[in-house]
Amino acid sequence: MKRRSRIAAVVSAAAVAVALAVPASGAAAATQFLTYIKPAPIVGSLSTTAWGAATVGPRDQSNGLEDKTLANWVYWDGGIIKGADGKYHMFASRWPESEGHEAWRYDSYAVSAVSDNLYGPYTDQGLMWPDVDGGHGHNVTPVQLKDGTYAVTISGFSDARVFTSPSLNGPWTAQGQVQVASGPYSSTFNTGGNFRTILGPDGKYHAIVNGFQTAVADNVVGPYTVQNPPLFSSITGSPTDDMEDPLIWYSGGQYHVIFNSWSAKKAYHYTSTDGATNWTLQPGVAYDANVDFTTYTDGTKNHWAKLERPSMYIENGVPTAMTFAVVDVEKNQENGNDGHGSKVIVVPFDGASLNAPALTLPTVYADTDRAGANAALGIGTYTIAQLQAKGIGNDAISSVAVPPGYKVVAYADDNLSGTPWTFTSTNLDLRQTGNNDQISSIRITLDTTAQFEVSSKSSNRAIDIGSASTADGAEALQWEYRATPNQQWSFADAGNGAVKIVNRNSGKVLEVSGASTANGAQIVQSTDAGRASQQWTLTSSGDGALTITNRGSGKVLDVTGASTANGAKIIQWPGTGSANQRWEITKVG
């Protein structure tokens, strides 16, 4: 039966042969959240004279919400909802610039701002509830309610409170404090600790606070039933220090949470299918204020001292942009009337890719729209007999799914002969391209032009060349992925089913130091000389990850001591199948 329906395509490119045995299915290799954040369009122009520290770099003052002269205000928070009028409504907090950053604690006001463009500039519309507590409010967060009206929650210097309005333009009516039902976990659920709530697909309001506790309610004000104790210590691999600013949203069939560690200046991404249980830390970082984080479409980068209070803008179920509250210097250095301040920035986000069904391997299907009998195919070649052994008949393929980093070349005849068809993205209906039910053999390759993150299955840390060295003999280590060139690799064909693994930063290849065959020999980078110690084969480890074996020694890439720490050395060791010898390869560029 040939069916048709609409689903998201997964796009890729490809090219290099390596022998790889494949499981029929496997867990998807996760992509770190950071890679979905994209360069921002330049709305106005890049200014070199804008307020702030020179370390920020040339920036677009028309992006987001700011006082361009710092004559009056600094801004924080910044969630966005698009109105029926086609305008973008941002909800933020502000306080007098002259009072310095710490004035948020006692003199922060809730305001709305409007723009015709998602990325700005946003025009401050003034206080949202001037007659209630003088308009004060902090940790300002908007949410659309079940009936199509709106609410804004505030917290930070008091227990969370709720204001509602039939319109994004107000007027806003105070509904009182958020209510929490008595229960086994309620005593630690502090609504004053960065309270946020969203309307879930189940029609309930799902809230989160610092400490990673979630709660649900039928009404935005509550009472909320707390679903769990503080979770950080129970989530495998999760940081625990100074975690705050939780962001929660639902997309792609699961709940997502981001927490920011204010002291480490890094944020982390967690997911759960029900928003209450089985929260899982995803690989890498969500964002990192220690590096040049914000990029414009012309390649210019900005480096803000702090990235906090993230929010996600979602349109038609697809996360489309993020906002961040940013400050140009450390908070205790922003003292008022000193040329330093804070604002809200807006950056594009590739939510379609985040939402897309994860694919570990190219997969062929007997029906259109990725339906019917199917087989996941790893790097290598497949004859009629080999496809039949996987449950795919001759001339019986009607759709092909291709994850990032792969290329599928299909042939009309057996043994890679006859008319070839190349797939560098998912094709849901081969009838549209004239090759439905005509494929007899297939070659799967990697993209030699692409760059990949290679991360340990046990630690979720990436292979890195220490100190971004370009020298021969520089050691390979594992490190938290930060999207730097010394952590990115390409795969070049070395012949006979092997590859060379080439560092993007140095152009040099991974090698066993001294061409050693000893257990524990260090992996280094070196100039390509065609040695067997510089060549590797990739085989499936059966869980969506790969084992990487050196051609010269027959031993595999290994994180020494199964360490999960930054800086742990990459060595070779006899294969045992342990997690520190399994690697996830994710296309990053």
What does this entry show, briefly?
Helix content is 3%, strand content 38%. The protein has three helices and 43 strands.
Query: What is the subunit organization of this protein?
Result: single chain
Instruction: Note the main sheet.
Output: 5 strands, antiparallel
The CATH class assignment of the largest domain is: Mainly Beta
Low-confidence parts, pLDDT < 50 over ≥5 residues?
A: 1-30
- Fraction of residues in helix: under 10%
The CATH superfamily of the largest domain turns out to be: Glycosyl hydrolase domain, family 43
**What is the SS-derived class?**
mainly beta
Q: How much beta, percentage-wise?
A: 35-45%
Question: C-alpha Rg, in Å?
Answer: 26 Å
Number of domains: 3
**Distance N to C terminus:** 37 Å
Pfam families: RicinB_lectin_2
Protein name: Endoglucanase
Keywords: Signal
InterPro entries: G_crystallin-like, Glyco_hydro_beta-prop_sf, Ricin_B-like_lectins, Ricin_B_lectin
